[in-house]
Amino acid sequence: MKHHCEDVHGLAAAYALSALDPEEGAMFAAHLPRCEGCRQETAEFAATAARLAAATAQAPPAAMRQRTLSAIDGVRQLPPRIPATAPAPAPGAAPRRRAMPLALAACLAAAAVFAGLAAWGHQEREELNERARRAEQRLDDVSGVLAAPDARTVHGRTGNGALTTVVASDRQNKAVFTAAGLPAPAAGKTYQLWLEHQGTMLPAGFIHQDGTVLIDGDTADATALGLTLEPSSGSPQPTTPPLLLMTLPT
Prior knowledge:
The chain is α+β, with helices and mostly antiparallel strands. It folds into two domains: 1-53 and 95-147, no CATH class; 152-247. It has helices spanning 5-9, 12-16, 22-31, 36-56, 64-71, 93-146, and strands spanning 152-157, 163-169, 174-180, 189-197, 200-207, 211-214, 224-231, 244-247. The strands form two sheets. A four-stranded antiparallel β-sheet has the order 1-2-3-6, covered by helices on one side. A hairpin with a 5-residue loop joins strand 1 and strand 2. The longest helix is centred in the middle third of the chain and has 54 residues, at 93-146. The radius of gyration is 34 Å and the shape is elongated.
């Protein structure tokens, strides 16, 4: 089969995707050592195809291999396919051959978009799953403190009128803080919790509205819990007078 020189250069995409027939593939393989441009283009197409495959690849379930092997005996083998005789190329075939890389490039571009969407969707699902796992872990920790045999409780009221409760477990070295009637903070502000250790206030997490949160930090050696209004990103030390400073239960 004879091809115009321009047609040969246009086979890089099809060669990278193993989409050429044996004769064309052999012809292009013989052409590659003599053409640096085709070698670079072929490598780029192959790398793109590999990235698309990696973006959408998923590990198969552990039981799939055994199910596949067990089902092989019951699968009927299809007869071999006999290719039809290829028709003689028409005089206008060359422009269609030259158009093949454009079509393949369009397919690759579309595949890249779908692969990107799939990767984005997978990442979104992973982030949602991770947030759900963290929330579930926090819920388990809160429940564990509330149900602990050594749980101790103390109540208080903030300077802006909210009712508060702290439940602590020395055995678990954890405590939870509950607020009810806490006014919404101003824009760019949030409520920050503090644990007092030997006269020093250390950050202990946030509570953005009414509810219950697990207090961050070592509560076993802390003597008091504080609450202040801070910038939404938090502060390393209190920047406003405490709305609450209550002795931890012992």
